[in-house]
Design brief:
four-stranded antiparallel β-sheet
């Protein structure tokens, strides 16, 4: 459900928008007109409170309702419609057709995004970085790099551990066995049976 509100300078325009919304099938439509004024020309305090309460019952956010209630108290009229997501554009077109005025509600400030050459993907899609760590895998999982290099006097990098996987499992890097996997699991290399998958 989408809440759409428009403020009108005259009650006549607001009623035209309200009538058209009703004719077009929008059932949840609310009309707020200026309250009666006292002898001094100002709206009564109880009417202002009831106006604010009515707007909040129409599911208008309290901060927005306070601004709109003040504007209605000054003589404007308000139309609010709760449109389904499939009818939001239709409802907006209708209420904008009857000459709405500025509501006085400040527009939400959109965040500014600066382009970052080091993170073009995140900048293009305006996605925040999870981390600015140089090695995110290490940062997330707490694991050091598998291979770290040191530089010998010749300047050629030499790995500290050329076979980290074998060292982690306790397996030798080189073996005299022609079939080390079969020897390790004690599987025969060849069998005397016929073919397994066809005859």
């Amino acid at each position: 459900m989408q809440t759409i509100s428009r403020l009108y300078a005259s009650e006549e325009n607001a009623r035209k928008a309200w009538d058209e919304l009703k004719r077009r099938g929008f059932a949840d439509v609310h009309l707020f007109t200026p309250p009666p004024r006292g002898e001094d020309g100002a709206p009564a305090a109880d009417h202002a409170e009831s106006l604010l309460a009515g707007m909040m019952k129409a599911f208008i956010v309290r901060s927005d309702a306070a601004i709109l209630a003040r504007r209605v108290g000054e003589g404007a009229s308000l139309v609010t419609v709760h449109a389904p997501f499939t009818g939001g554009l239709k409802a907006t077109t209708i209420v904008d057709r009857h000459g709405p005025i500025d509501s006085g509600i400040p527009e939400p400030a959109s965040p500014s995004y600066a382009w970052d050459d080091e993170h073009p993907f995140s900048s293009a899609f305006r996605l925040p970085l999870l981390t600015k760590c140089e090695h995110p895998f290490e940062f997330i999982f707490g694991l050091p790099s598998l291979i770290k290099t040191t530089y010998a006097s010749s300047g050629r990098p030499q790995p500290d551990n050329p076979a980290p996987f074998s060292a982690a499992l306790g397996l030798p890097v080189l073996s005299n066995e022609p079939a080390p996997l079969s020897s390790f699991f004690k599987f025969p290399i060849l069998t005397k049976s016929g073919p397994l998958f066809y005859r």
